[in-house]
Design brief:
With 339 residues, the chain is of the alpha+beta class. It contains 13 helices and 9 strands. It binds 3,4-dihydroxyphenylalanine.
């Protein structure tokens, strides 16, 4: 009996050494120490032994069991360690590999031009305010000296939501809103989207953007307007840019003017950008009409002001020498990616 015990033990040690994973080890354990295991069988067979032999064999079986358990514990630790080492090897990160390139969006050329423009005016102490795109007739027309049946209204025919509410045709509506609040002095610019019943072509779109400017205070003169626009033109288009005021008519300003800047491409000699004239029209402006001040609750005897309206797309196209406005709205990444 003690011979077969020794044999069982030797074989078991051999098998344990060869086990290559936890499952195999568990199988070996069951086959030796389990209910029907080899060692257990020996214990069961002890009832046939003589009383003298019984304790000796019993002790040997227990020693064998303790020894095997110890070896298995050792082996289990080894296997666990091997698994971990293997996993760490598999999951190492090669920090020298090139990273995944992130596709980053960027600003639309209109937005770039707007932020440049805002920077210039903020630098001169202006505040940027916004007004609603869906507007009352009162702010878009009435308070700007464009009463019902005024011919200027026809030019700016737009989408009416009700008789009194419409898609605004000009950011000048924000002028009336700000003046009506009654906080003076005023020094604001107001960028935003406007709507017209225009057909799409290279220079027109039914929806485009304007930047309105308004200054109201004591002793505000046309010289201030001219100086402000000169400063803007120099900063936005280049230090050598000059401005020229041409008389014009807008219902909400008196006097009114359209402003041209010297062509930034040819410096005034005449080229394809300025269509040979040396000058480029960029905005409308004027001194706020006394009647407009009055309607908005400001005393024209005490206060005066100037206003201007810049077509954002127009200056964007000029700045980047783009010859078709539609390119700004088609959202072709190959085009937009160039800015
Ligand atoms: N609102 C005018 C337009 O859409 C542009 C304009 C002209 C704005 C003169 C002004 C201004 O503030 O003084 O045609």
């Amino acid at each position: 009996m003690s011979e077969s015990l020794q044999k069982i033990q030797e074989e078991a040690v051999q098998k344990i050494r060869e086990a290559s994973n936890q499952e195999m080890l568990e199988e070996i354990r069951v086959s030796i120490l389990g209910k029907k295991g080899a060692l257990t069988q020996i214990l069961k067979g002890m009832k046939d032994l003589s009383p003298e032999e019984r304790p000796k064999i019993g002790q040997k079986v227990n020693e064998a069991r303790a020894a095997l358990e110890e070896i298995m514990l050792q082996k289990r630790k080894e296997l666990k360690h091997a698994v971990l080492t293997e996993r760490l090897k598999r999951e190492t990160i090669d920090v020298t590999l090139p990273g995944k390139r992130q596709i980053r969006g960027h600003r639309h050329p209109n937005q770039i031009a707007l932020e440049d423009l805002e920077r210039v005016f903020i630098g001169m102490g202006y505040e940027v305010v916004e007004g609603p795109e869906i507007e009352y007739d009162r702010y878009n027309f009435e308070l700007l000296n464009i009463p019902a049946n005024h011919p200027a209204k026809d030019e700016q025919d737009t989408f009416y939501i009700t008789k009194d509410i419409l898609l605004r045709t000009q950011t000048s509506s924000v002028q009336a809103r700000i003046m009506e609040q009654g906080k003076l002095p005023i020094k604001i610019i107001s960028p935003g989207r406007v709507f017209r019943s225009d057909e799409v072509d290279a220079t027109h779109s039914p929806s485009f953007h304007q930047v309105e400017g308004l200054v109201v205070g004591k002793n505000v003169t046309m010289a201030d307007l001219k100086g402000t626009l000169d400063q803007f033109a120099r900063e936005f288009f280049g230090p050598k840019t000059k401005t020229k005021l041409r008389p014009h008519h807008f219902p909400f300003t008196e006097p009114s003017a359209e402003v041209d800047v010297t062509c930034f491409k040819c410096g005034g000699k005449g080229c394809s950008v300025c269509k040979g004239s040396g000058w480029i029209e960029i905005l409308g402006c004027g001194m706020v009409h006394p009647h407009v001040l009055e309607m908005c609750g400001i005393d024209p005897e005490v206060y005066s002001g100037f206003a201007f309206g810049i077509g954002l797309e127009r200056v964007t196209l000029l700045k980047y020498e783009i010859d078709d406005m539609r390119l700004l709205y088609e959202n072709d990444i190959r085009f937009l990616g160039q800015f």
